[in-house]
Amino acid sequence: MEQITPTIAPPRAAKAPVTGQTTESLGSVTKRLSSELMTLMMSSSPGISAFPKSDANLFEWVGTIEGPSGTIYAGLTYKISINFPANYPYAAPTIKFDSPCYHPNVDINSGAICLDILQDKWSAVYSVQTILLSLQSLLGEPNNASPLNPDAARIWDTPQEFKTQVMRYYRPIDA
Amino acid sequence: MNFQPHEKLSKHVVSKWSASFGRLNREQTGITGLLSFSEAWTIARDFLYPRDLTDASPPPPKKIRDVKAAFDVLAQCKMLPVLMEDFLEDMHKQQYLVTREIKIFMDKYDATSDPQYIAKMAIRVVEWYKGWSPPSELGGTLAAAYTLNFQTHIYSVLPPSFTRGFKALLNLTFNLVHMASVPEWMSSLVPANHPPPARADSPLWSAFDKLGLLDRYESLVSSVCYEYIEAYILETCTKRWDESMLVAIREWMTDNIVPWMIMPYARGARNAEEARSMLQGVGSRLDFHVCKTLTDLRTSEIFDIIVDYPDSSGALHDLKECLQRVDQRSQLVQTLRKANNKRLLHPGADTKDILTQYVSIIRCLRIVDPPGVLLYKVADPIRRYLRDRPDTIRCIVASLVGDGESGDSLVDDNEPIQPLQQQQEEDYSDPNWEPEPIDAGPEFRTNKPSDIISTLVSIYDSKELFVKELQVLLAQRLLAITDGNYEKERRNIEILKIRFGESALQVCEVMLRDMTDSKRTDTHIQAQKSSNLHATVISKHFWPPLQSGKFQMPGQLKELREKYAKEFHLFKPDKKLNWLPHLGTLKLDIELDDRTISAEVPPLEAACIELFSQKDEWSVKELIEQMAGSMESTAIIKALGTWIDLGILKEEGEDVYRLLNTAEEGDQGHRPSTRPAMTIDEEPPVTSLQQQEAAQMQVFWKFIEGMLTNLGTLSLDRIQSMLKFAPGYDRNIEQLGGFMEAARREGLVTVKDGMWKLQR
């Protein structure tokens, strides 16, 4: 029996590896962001979500975080803005709260966040989804050792008082 | 001075008197002139006097010379006008005689509704008319004045019921044209001493004419004729569509109506030429009426005519010819559209039936209106409706490849197979170019006689959908073939290539080649190491998604597979077999203690029964665990059901199945017969286009949900442009609008002023 050569070659895998490349072309960043968006959309993590602000710019996203149930922030929804640098994912995105958030690690005025993975602990393996999940858990478990809002850190242990402050600053989203 | 007026008056009287005297006396001596005038007056008056015809006494003999002389005298005296007035006065006094007789006849008619009394009355009244008529020598003025007076009187005394009777009588005359035996009363109208007239009804017509009835009741006469024609057409043509009736009707008109028409419309004709010119106007009016009646009839029947096509082509050709005379195209369109909406475009109708009817409509309206304007107007709602039906494409595709089950294909086998035709630009350089018909709308596109399939495919914007559906259908059919004979499919593909073009069907080519390659590969592997397993190896990328789901084949089935895979790997080292565990069929011989049962079953069934060779009792949950499957327990229960039906397994209490190593008494006898040994999986192995679509929409929905969550309210335009982030998004904004609308109905989103937002 003679050898039969396969006549149809399967189409080549279209997915190029994303990580491990030193050349930072905007194209590959866009590709990475697109695929993160797809993953985020298809995953059903309750209470976190994000989407590009406009179809023209994939580097600016808007995110939504719902307070985890069982914490003081349960039932509250916060908007955040996410800005990706041109060398993402080798540098962390800039993230801040758009809605005022009374929280030990969030600056009440600027919305800046103190979270280790967004600063020195950043790694390219993190993704939008992991950031959002971290932020969500940060709401319930603040790091009171390095507060941006010392007042909040101080009254964290008195939930009654803390909740009052949270609600004083909280602005519901009119979506 | 006082007498002056008197004197003047006397003078005046005297001069008048002498003038009158002179006129009457005619300058004869003495008063002889006056006397002769007096005598002439008496003779003339007596001659003209309208006598009672019922009076039996014979009229005084008249010496025509005397009468003539008398009239001459009166003419000289210029007294004829006075005589005429006198005569009319007399007539007026005598009219009660006629009135009396008319009343008698009309009373009889009212009592019996028999039109013969109307006929008799007409004849009798004519007798009066003739009896009283002044001789024609006396000049036209007198005759005209007489006729006018007489007729006026007649009209004034005819009761309202006369119209009805007259109509009935006219209707009767149609039968006289050919009637061999004229009713007795009709023949009795002619006096016995006269020769019988050429036509039985001619005395009647001349009577009508004499009495001026034809002019006075002209519209009645024509409406009687119209109604007669209508009745005939309705009677002969209703539901007779197989042959052209128009010719037959026109022949009937020539044989029946035209001879009849001669009487009311061309009595005065002296020769055939004259008669023809007199009948021309009314004839063409009647022909128009024939066309109109037939058009109305066919219009009301049009839906059924189309259903009956091609047995109704006669009716369609008639309709075409009639519509050229009668401007009722818009009525036809409206009626058909209404009928389609009522009878065709509703959920109860099968898509296949709708398509069949649509094809018939195309064929029928092409006969009626070759340029296709009518078709365009009628087809539009059907096409829109079909576009919304989920299985339209499948039906069209099935008929494209000549799905054997249905028998009657949408496509005429005799029609040559042609490539799909695209909408063509108008070719103005074509010497046979014709402008669009006047009732064509602005969006009308001349649909040059393209073939049916092109028209059907053009329901959709692109033919890609068809090719995709074709692929699915082909996959189903290829996988169903077990005897390795792919000739029929190959032939289909070749036919479709002509229609859709080579490149569109490349994928199908690959699929077909997969099948033949598999066969060759299998032959090779069998030659190396004989196996009971015959694999079909497909190129995943070219096939539509197949039913997936994983489970492990247990026991000897697993070994079989692994051995085969090994051989395959030896044969094609760069390839690895990736099994689709749900597909295929297995022929099993199940050897039990007391019997052997053969069955042809799907893999899941086989896997189940294989496990029973390890131990006799299993629960559904255990089975799923053993197969490491991700399937629903219902699928297992169904598979077990197959074996229970075959009398091999038995359900023992709750969720426990036991192998019947020995047949149960009484159980075995009837059970297998209730179901054929081979069970066919109802679910097609290929994921249908619709399911693929739904899965894709699910992805898009996630994106929409994501953007609405984060960006708040968005317009449809924004959503559309943002969806470019979703891979493979290829919908247009209308489709998106439809999708969002569906989501709104499900309560997922709300819309206000064109801005969409999530429903929370």
UniProtKB/TrEMBL annotation, chain A:
Coiled coil: none
Disordered as annotated region, ranges: 1-25
Record SUPFAM superfamilies: UBC-like
Domain of life: Eukaryota
Annotated UBC core domain residues: 28-175
Active site: 114
Keywords (A to Z) from UniProt: ATP-binding, Nucleotide-binding, Transferase, Ubl conjugation pathway
A GO term, aspect molecular function: ATP binding
UniProt xrefs under InterPro entries: Ub_conjugating_enzyme, UBC, UBQ-conjugating_AS, UBQ-conjugating_enzyme/RWD
Family membership noted in the UniProt record: Belongs to the ubiquitin-conjugating enzyme family.
This protein's name: Ubiquitin-conjugating enzyme E2 11
Originating species: Cerrena zonata
Lineage: Eukaryota, Fungi, Dikarya, Basidiomycota, Agaricomycotina
From TrEMBL, chain B:
Keywords, sorted A to Z: Cell cycle, Cell division, Mitosis, Ubl conjugation pathway
SUPFAM superfamilies associated with the record: Cullin homology domain, Winged helix' DNA-binding domain
Entry's transmembrane regions: none
Domain Cullin family profile: 420-626
Gene Ontology biological process terms in this record: cell division; metaphase/anaphase transition of mitotic cell cycle; protein K11-linked ubiquitination; ubiquitin-dependent protein catabolic process
Family matches, as InterPro entries: ANAPC2 (IPR044554), ANAPC2_C (IPR014786), Cullin-like_AB (IPR059120), Cullin_homology (IPR016158), Cullin_homology_sf (IPR036317), TPR_ANAPC2 (IPR057975), WH-like_DNA-bd_sf (IPR036388), WH_DNA-bd_sf (IPR036390)
Protein name as catalogued: Anaphase-promoting complex subunit 2
